Amino acid sequence: METIEYVIDPFSGTTQMQAWQWIFAICLITSFLQGASMGANDVANCFGTSVGAKVLTITQACILATIFITLGSMTIGSKVSNTVGKGIVNYKLFADTPQLFALGMLTAAISTGLWVTLATWLSMPVSTTHSVVGSVMGFGLVQFGGSGIDWWPGVGKIVISWVASPLVTGIFSVAFYLTAKYWFLRKVQQDESRLEWGLKQQILYMAIVLFLAFLTFLIFVTFKYDKKAVGMNLGISFGVAGAIAIAWIAGLHKPINGYFAKRGLVGGFHDEDEVVAKDLDELNEISSSSEHDEETATAPAQAATASAAVGSAAVSGASQRSNAMSVVSSIMRSDADLRADRLPPNDIWHPELESRFAFGQMVSACYEAIAFGANDIGNSSGTLIAVYQTIEYASVISKPSPEYWALAYCTVGIVAGLWLFGANVMRTIGQNITLMTPIRGLSAELATAFSVLIASYIGIPVSTTHCSVGGVIGAGLCEAQGYKKVNWKLMLKVAASWVLTLPVAMGLNALMYVICRGGTQGQWFVPPSAVVGDGVENAFNDYEYTCVGNADIQTCTLTFASELLVEE
User: What stretches pass through the bilayer (predicted)?
Assistant: First the structure.
C-alpha cells in the first residue's frame, strides 16, 4: 500500500456521482410527501366552498381535482419548478461546486419543513411557497454573500408578485361580482317580475365566464410550447373557447342547470328569520364540534409533522389546513357577527338566480385546481428537479429542460394525499366555512385562478392561499359597508406572517446549510489527477483516506493499492 499526503480545497477536484445519491434519494422522499400533504390539505382551497355548498360531493370533488390538478401541473407547471431551482440563487457561481448547489437545495427542503411545522404549532398562517423561496435564498447568501442571490429579475419579481397577486386577485373578483350585480342581480331584486329576463342574462354571463376560462388556459398552454406560432395559437384558443361559449348559449345550459335544479341547490335566503336561524345553527355547530374537527384534522397533520424531519413535504399541508384555509374561510365576518354589530347584512339575491351559479362555482373550482397544479407543483418538484439535473450532468445547467417525470411523480403525491386524507379536510371545511353564496364563490375562485395562472405562465411562484384571501376580500368589499365586514385583525396577523416568513426561512436554512456543509467537507471527492500523479482507476471505493483541517483547506492522507495507479 502506498500513502500520499496533499493539501486540497475540499470542494474541488473530480466529483464522484456515487457520493451524491443520498441527496437525490432524500429529495425523492420529501418531494412525494410534500405533494401528498398539499393534496390532503391545500386542495381544499379549490373545492372547500363547492363541497360546503353541496355543489359537489366529496367523491366528485376528488375526481375533478385529480383531473384538473394533473392537467395544470403537466402543461404549465415546469416554469415555476425551474424558477425555484434556477431563478432564486445565482447558480452561475456554483459552476465549480455543483455539489454545494445540490446540498443547498436539499437543506432548503428540510428547513422549509421545519419552519412550516413551527408556524403550525404557533397557529401562524404562513405560505409554503414563501418558505421555499426564503430557504433557497438562505444557502446562496451563506455561500457567496449578496452576490449569491439573483436579486433582479429573480427575487425582485417574486417579491413584487407576492404584494401584487392578492391585489390583482381582489380587482378581478370585484370585476366579476359587480358585473353580475349591476347587470342583472340587483335589477331582479328590485323588480322580481324581471326574473325571466335575469335568468337569460345569467346564461350570457356564464357564457362569458366559460369563454374567458378556456381562452386564457389555451393561450397559456399553446404559447408555452410554441411562442412563434402566434396565429395558430390564437386561432385554436379563440376557436375552442368561442365554440364552448356558443354551445352553452345554444342549449348546453339546459341539461346542466336542470341537473343542479334536481339536487335542490339554492344559493340565497329571502326570509330573515331563516338567515338568523342558519347563523345560530352554524355558530352552535362550530362550537360543539370544534374538538371533533381537531381530531378529524389530526390524522393528516400528525402524519405531516412526523415527516418534517425528512423535509418540507408533509408539514406544509398541516399548516395549510389548520391556518391558511381558516384564513380564507374567516377573512370575512359572518352574518351573525354583522348582525351583532348592527351592520347591514350581506346581499342576498333571488334564490333561483343564485342557484344557477352552482355550475359556475364548480367551473371556477376546477379552474382554480388547474392553477394550483400549475403553480404549487413547483414547491415540491423544484428542489427535486434541481438536485436530479445537477447529479445527472455533474454541473448546474443554465437552461434546464422540463423534467416531466418529476412533475408526474409529484402530481401522484398530490393525488395520493387528496384521496387518502383530502376528503376529511374538505368535509371539515365544508361544514365550518363562513356562508358564501355561489356568485361570491365563483367571483373569488375565478379571480384566484386567473392570477395564479398568469404567475405560473411567467414562472413566478405565488401563494394560492394569499390570492384566495384577496379574492374573498374583493367580493366582500362590494357589499354595503364592506370594509367593516373584513376581519382586519386576522388580516394583520396574515400580513405579519407574510413578512416574517422570508427572513425566518432564510436564516433557518442558512444555519442548516452551514452545519451540513461542514459535516461533509472532504468526504465526496477524488483528488485531482495532478495531485495523485496519473490518477486512480475507478478507485473511489478502493482507497482509504482521512482529512483534517478547517472548512477551507484540509490535509488529506490517502492509502490505496499501488496497482491502482495508472502507469505512464
Answer: 20-40, 61-80, 100-120, 132-152, 158-183, 203-223, 229-252, 404-426, 446-478, 490-515
Backbone angles phi, psi at 542, to 5 degrees: -110, 10
Of 111, 47, 126, the closest CA to residue 317 belongs to 126
pLDDT value of position 219: 93
Cβ proximity of 16 and 540 under 8 Å: yes
Cell numbers for 495: 400580513
The CA distances from residue 331 to 5, 317, 471, in Å, are 66, 20, 11
Coil, strand, or helix at residue 409?
helix
Rounded-to-integer distance, Cα 460 and Cα 70, Å: 19
Sole residue written with cell 379549490: 46
* Residue type (1 letter), 399: K
Buried b (16+ CB within 10 A) or exposed e, 441-461: bbbbbbbbbbbbbbbbbebbb
In three-state secondary structure terms, 542 is coil
Would you give the DSSP letter of residue 567?
P
If one compares 543 and 473, the residue with the highest pLDDT of the two is 473
Cell (9 digits) for 223 = 404559447
Q: Which three cell numbers stand for residue 374?
A: 400549475
Tell me: the pLDDT tens digits for 415-465?
A: 998 888 777 767 665 555 545 677 888 888 899 999 999 999 888 888 887
What are 255's three cell numbers?
341539461
Q: DSSP assignment of 426-437, as one string?
A: HHHHHHHSPP--
Dist. CA 32–CA 27, nearest whole Å: 8
CB 88 within 8 A of CB 477: no
* Distance separating alpha carbons of residues 15 and 96, to the nearest angstrom: 10
Residue 545: left if φ>0, alpha if ψ -120 to 50, beta else—which one? beta
Query: For residue 314, which of 20, 22, 42, 24 has the smallest C-alpha distance?
Result: 42
Q: Are β-strands 2-8 and 554-560 bridged in parallel, bridged antiparallel, or unpaired? A: antiparallel
**CA-CA distance, 101 to 106, in Å (whole number)?**
9
Residue located via cell numbers 405531516: 304
DSSP 145: G
543 DSSP assignment: E
Contact between 89 and 150 (Cβ < 8 Å): yes
Q: Are 422 and 44 in contact (CB under 8 A)?
A: yes
Find the distance separating the first CA and the last CA of the chain, reported in whole Å: 19
Taking the C-alpha atoms of residue 437 and residue 280, their distance in angstroms, rounded to an integer, is: 18
